[in-house]
Specification:
homodimer; alpha+beta; 60s Ribosomal Protein L30, Chain: A; Phosphoribosyl-aminoimidazole Synthetase, Chain A, domain 2; seven-stranded mixed β-sheet; globular
Chain lengths: 335, 335
């Protein structure tokens, strides 16, 4: 038997908090509890991706809550599966935490993971509990292509295509992060947001969107399957656009007029914080919306045009705005 | 473009060190570099497990080397797939590290992961790089059951079965750990082991086995498929035997005479360290050998009998040694 030690929890008691948060599904043949899970796929083509969140590096204590940490860890992985044009089915989670972590934190993280996974038709099928100095979630998302379906890669964009994004509002996660980094937001364990000295309406929604991005990922395995190239917007429009450009050997020209409404929506908050809303829109990370290149006049519902795919420009910048070079850059985990 | 900062590396330069370490395979349709990998399975039955290693908790700097950390992270995940009676095919790895981590560490960890995966026919198909205060590897292993094959669960053992283990030597990882925890071993970055004040021959091999367990996992998807129940030995014979007993609703009686050679082999080192070799053999973790219950007279090559499966004993201990209660317990990550 496993005896709980003072100030800490046994693995068994943590599992007792976590497992009830994880409903199963028909395609899960063996769920948590054996050496590994068994999942029945709709085809033999597995799509898989992994991504970790570390406290203090990828999220800040006091600026988010455990349930949202779970949701964010889920969404950033599910988005990568969706961006291949594949339907997500299963997640596994390695959760490492300090010994004194309260039971509710495990419970809430699991609930957040499971509820976001359920939005996209996926289940948590397995996990691992371990010790670490800081709360760390490493999530792997798995999905499958339908029978006979090809993955939608980053490399298929062609000059003349339209660049489109699967969200009405860009830059919101970056705006929320700016509020947090300016010390203007405090989030309690239940997800209540207290703002200090900011009057712009909707600011709390931006903080929440940064902490737990809400995005329609079904565009990836839905209308996005018509794209010539697709990826999820995780490190900013300029940086990710540059990756799509490099993979497809093309250039990307962003359309200032198309992005102006996104900038205008964030301008009042940017003015309060003394920041440039164009930076949020052009370089803002962690939106996880689908970024895709479609044949002209074939941009489907759910996507909106934000630029054009050009012939590659030797020596010039891969991504421009109305033909002009863009300053600044996206997010590098190690820079 | 990503500029390396003083004392740190850009993601691009780390990837340039890592990717050449990762050979691909025929079943990998899309490897690292897009949003997600695409792997072609031999059936529609995915088997998946995840497990993390954190520096200072799961391994100690100075007591192992980056290549072995990679090997260990691979083997402990591959073992869980094998223990379902499934063939491993793919790994993904979320690697988080401090900013000042040398490029060689990423390179060597990747090489260790890939070389152990290759032993079992699997490839590294994707990953994630991030920042953390301590080196952290979260690995997910995926495999597949053959067409029409059922998974081998923990729950199928029946009274009268023989309990068998897929290794000639138990307790070696625990013995190696005891040497490390006693401060008697130092391992340099190239895997050279310096021992202090220990004369027992073979001691360095035990340290190496603890740091990078060598075990025949092909028993899992090979002859182990005949087992009524199977798991990998990760937390000690008594603790894992208890899990198998609980899942199958049976008792387990270990055979003292069958385990005596394992104990005898470790007795000289145990005497030097003032420890009890029975503790290593009965409770030693991280062997990752296949632990399985077979019909009597049906124990296949590669496995050796170490006990018997009994009818469940209400109120009594789940695992006994020649019918007697066993003191001590296995490893709890949170206790």
């Amino acid at each position: 038997m496993t005896a709980p030690r003072p100030g800490g929890l046994s693995e068994a008691s943590i599992l007792a908090a976590v497992l009830p948060q994880l409903p199963s599904a028909d395609h899960v043949e063996i769920g948590p509890g054996d050496d590994a899970a068994v999942v029945r796929l709709p085809s033999d083509r597995l799509v898989v991706t992994t991504d970790a969140l570390v406290e203090g590096h990828d999220f800040l204590p006091g600026a988010t809550c455990p349930r949202w940490i779970g949701r964010k860890a889920a969404v950033q992985n599910l988005a990568d599966v969706a961006a291949m044009g594949a339907r997500p089915l299963a997640l596994v989670v390695a959760l490492s935490a300090p010994a004194e972590t309260p039971r509710e934190v495990f419970e809430q993280i699991s609930a957040g993971l499971a509820e976001r996974a359920a939005v996209d038709g996926a289940s948590i099928v397995g996990g691992d509990l371990g010790r670490a100095d800081r709360l760390t979630l490493a999530v792997t998302a798995m999905g499958a292509l339908g029978p006979g379906e090809a993955p939608v890669l980053r490399s298929g964009a062609r000059p003349g295509d339209v660049l489109a994004i699967g969200t009405e509002h860009l830059g919101r996660s970056a705006a929320g992060l700016a509020v947090v980094l300016d010390g203007r937001a405090e989030v309690d364990a239940g997800g209540r947001i207290a703002l200090e000295g900011l009057r712009t309406p909707g600011t709390a929604d931006l903080v929440r969107h940064h902490d737990a991005p809400e995005v329609d990922l079904s565009l990836g395995w839905g209308s996005g399957r018509a794209a010539h190239a697709m990826m999820d917007l995780s490190d900013g429009l300029v940086r990710d656009g540059g990756r799509l450009a490099a993979a497809s050997d093309v250039g990307v020209d962003l359309d200032r007029a198309a992005l102006a409404p996104d900038v205008a929506a964030l301008a009042p908050l940017a003015a309060e914080l003394g920041e440039d809303p164009w930076t949020w829109v052009l370089h803002g990370a962690e939106e996880h919306a689908m970024l895709a290149a479609f044949a002209p006049d074939a941009v489907p519902a759910g996507f909106r045009p934000i630029g054009r795919i050009l012939a590659p420009r030797a020596g010039g910048p891969a991504v421009t705005l109305d033909g002009a070079e863009i300053s600044g850059e996206g997010f590098d985990h190690f820079a």
